[in-house]
Design a protein that fits this description.
There is one protein chain. By secondary structure, this protein is of the alpha+beta class. It has 3 domains: 6-70 and 324-471, Elongation Factor Tu (Ef-tu), domain 3, CATH 2.40.30; 72-103 and 291-318, OB fold (Dihydrolipoamide Acetyltransferase, E2P) (Beta Barrel); 107-289, Helix Hairpins (Orthogonal Bundle), CATH 1.10.287. It has 2 helices and 23 strands. A 6-stranded antiparallel barrel has the order 5-14-17-16-15-18. A 4-stranded antiparallel beta sheet has the order 6-13-11-8, with no helix packed on it. Strands 10-9-7-12 form a 4-stranded antiparallel beta sheet, with no helix packed on it. A hairpin with a 2-residue loop joins β15 and β16. α1 runs antiparallel to α2 (200-289). The longest helix is centred in the N-terminal third of the chain and has 90 residues, at 105-194. The chain is rod-shaped. The two termini are 49 Å apart.
Length: 475
């Protein structure tokens, strides 16, 4: 839509006379309803005059726009399924109302499966913790058994060493005893040989005793060596058993520690799996919420592709807006520098031509747009109050933005002021009655200082007083 741009200017004088308003527009001339009570020139014997009074002069920039929304949201529902219910274009809604509801059977089935996976993950973690505790208990038992086996092996080694030492001592004693018996037998034989009274039978006995002692010594040596060898072998075997037992216990302890480490790793893995399962559960739970679209505020449906009974493909969308209405309009680049944020604005809606709203400039968007080769800038205007009328989205609006004003100042019709030598003058009526014989003597040329003006009136800052009568047509 190409908006018509126009400049409206006016002067409001606080006196009970009729409005005189000149409006210059590009396309048309129209009055401004909110500004009235302008004094009208009077005729005195053919001379148009004006009584100087106080009033207000407003300079405005005018444009046209549309009623827009302060907040508009577009929603897509990516889930698929049958549309069970949906609001329609133009429907009003309250915060918390269901805008669109889609059959969630597919999502519920997936949610239930993920919920089962979560429970299995919880069970897996409990099992891992039980296995870890079992590994700790097994390790404790292995340590205790290893300590007992070590004690037994040490006792066995001590016993075998003691037996070896006893065997050595016993063998040595037996050998010494047999050696001493042989020596005694040999001494007895030598004495018998030296004694000539010894009979042959006695000699034979002595010789037999020596032989018997020799045999006993040899037997003792053999027995002692056997006992020593057997004790030494038993001791060595005990040492081997002790070493074997040590390495076996060490292996068992290492296996128990590995089992502990393995079950500890299983716990961490189960915890990670549980955390992932919980995340999947929360996401699936949120996905279930995606099957229902709730209103976040009170508002109005602008458009909707959702129709009850149809299937949602994921590309359907709905646009909603709140009821915080505002106006968007464009201003030409020559007028945009005159406008400031918070400038007063007067608004007329085509739907309510006899009612005028007030507002203010909320935002000026400093990005040029082009409309029919005309550079413009977008502005946003807020309503001050809309309680007295029902506003609909898209209403056409005319906006008059006050860019400069002078309130409660003296003003005269702009045609009463003329310039000479770079100075401004007005003709002031000297007396209440015109001298018909010489009109020029009935007025006084008076220099004035002027301020702002519109196309009808101009501010007088000095040179005139309230109540002065000025001539509005040159004599």
């Amino acid at each position: 839509m190409t908006f018509k741009k126009r400049i409206k200017v006016l002067c409001m004088v606080s006196c009970p006379v009729i409005l005189l308003l000149i409006t210059v527009t590009i396309t048309s001339c129209s009055g401004m309803g909110p500004f009235s009570n302008f004094p009208e020139g009077e005729e005195n014997q053919g001379i148009e005059i004006f009584e100087v009074k106080k009033g207000s002069i407003y300079q405005t920039v005018s444009t046209e726009g549309l009623v827009d929304s302060g907040s508009m949201n577009n929603y897509n529902m990516q889930v698929t399924g049958e549309i069970l219910s949906a609001v329609e274009k133009g429907d009003y809604f309250k915060k918390g109302d269901i805008l669109v509801k889609i059959d969630n059977s597919e999502g519920m089935s997936m949610f239930e499966q993920i919920e089962k996976n979560l429970k299995l993950s919880e069970i897996s973690l409990k099992t891992a913790k039980l296995n870890y505790q079992s590994a700790l208990d097994s390790n404790h038992i292995t340590i205790q058994l290893a300590e007992l086996d070590t004690e037994k092996a040490e006792e066995s080694a001590k016993s075998a060493l003691s037996s070896l030492e006893s065997a050595n001592e016993s063998a040595e004693l037996s050998y010494k005893s047999a050696s001493r018996a042989l020596e005694e037998a040999e001494e007895m034989l030598a004495l018998a040989e030296a004694d000539h009274s010894t009979t042959e039978m006695q000699m034979a006995q002595y010789e037999s005793s020596v032989e018997s002692a020799e045999e006993q010594l040899e037997s003792t040596e053999v027995s002692a060596d056997s006992s020593k060898s057997q004790a030494e072998s038993s001791y060595n075997q005990t040492l081997i058993s002790q070493s074997t037992n040590y390495w076996s216990n060490l292996s068992n302890l290492q296996s128990a520690e590995k089992q502990i480490e393995s079950t500890r790793f299983n716990i961490k893995q189960a915890e990670i799996q549980l955390e992932l399962a919980r995340m999947d559960y929360e996401l699936a739970k949120e996905d279930l919420d995606d099957y229902i679209l709730y209103a976040a505020y009170d508002g109005l449906v602008i458009s909707s592709d959702f129709e009850e009974g149809n299937n949602n493909s994921g590309s359907n969308s709905i646009s909603i807006t709140n009821k915080n209405f505002l106006i968007t309009a464009t201003i030409g680049e020559t007028d945009i520098p005159k406008i400031l944020v918070n400038d007063k604005a007067y608004i007329t809606l085509d739907a309510y031509p006899d009612y005028q709203f007030s507002g203010k400039v909320k935002k000026i968007i400093p990005v040029m747009i082009e409309e029919g080769n005309i550079a413009s800038f977008e502005i946003v205007v807020d309503f001050d109050n809309t309680e007295n009328a029902e506003i609909f989205y898209g209403f056409s609006a005319s906006i008059d933005i006050v860019v400069e004003m002078a309130e409660d100042v003296l003003c005269v019709p702009i045609q009463a002021v003329y310039e000479e030598g770079g100075k401004s003058y007005v003709d002031v009526l000297v007396s209440g009655e015109e001298d018909t014989g010489d009109r020029e003597e009935s007025v006084k040329k008076t220099e004035i200082t002027t301020g702002i003006n519109d196309y009808s009136y101009i501010e007088v800052t000095s040179g005139l007083n309230q109540g002065d009568i000025v001539v509005t047509s040159r004599i």
